[in-house]
Amino acid sequence: MFGFILSPIEFVLVTAYAPLVSLKALESKSLNDDTNMLAFWVTWTILSAVENITWGAIWIFPFYTELRFGLLVYMLFFEGGKTVYRLAIDPAYQKAKKKIPAELMEQLQTDPKAFLMTMVEKGKEQVQQLMAKQGEAPKADKSEKKKKQAK
């Protein structure tokens, strides 16, 4: 409803004000502002990711723009980043952490590239299994064909 007014303000807050406050927090001796800004960025990134994953479908909810703007103001000006993180992000993270095997978490922390390659291979296997169940023969990608030809 008020997106045409709130969107430009939100843009300025996220692209100019929040980075400036983050830099100021990094220069200060206090960890309180550092924690709040880190929680802000984690929360804002997750919110943006959800919007991207849903291809923007979340925007059809009534007053979503106003709620999002209110969340932004709360997190930036009222130290709400820590609160939102504690109430929403951390519980979800703890649940996800329990479901992810410890060796995968360790690999993600020690060698992110290897972790990503492992996940890509697992994804390929799952797609091939799905296609096999549907009766379609999976198409080998070009790199696999080259490997077979080289042998």
TrEMBL record:
Pfam families from the UniProt entry: TB2_DP1_HVA22
Subcellular location: Membrane
Sequence intervals crossing the membrane: 6-26, 38-61, 67-89
Segments of this protein annotated with the region Disordered: 131-151
Keywords for the protein's UniProt record, in alphabetical order: Membrane, Receptor, Transmembrane, Transmembrane helix
Membrane topology field: Multi-pass membrane protein
Main location: membrane
PANTHER family: HVA22-LIKE PROTEINS
Similarity comment: family membership: Belongs to the DP1 family.
Protein name stated in the entry: Receptor expression-enhancing protein 5 (Polyposis locus protein 1 homolog)
Organism: Durusdinium trenchii
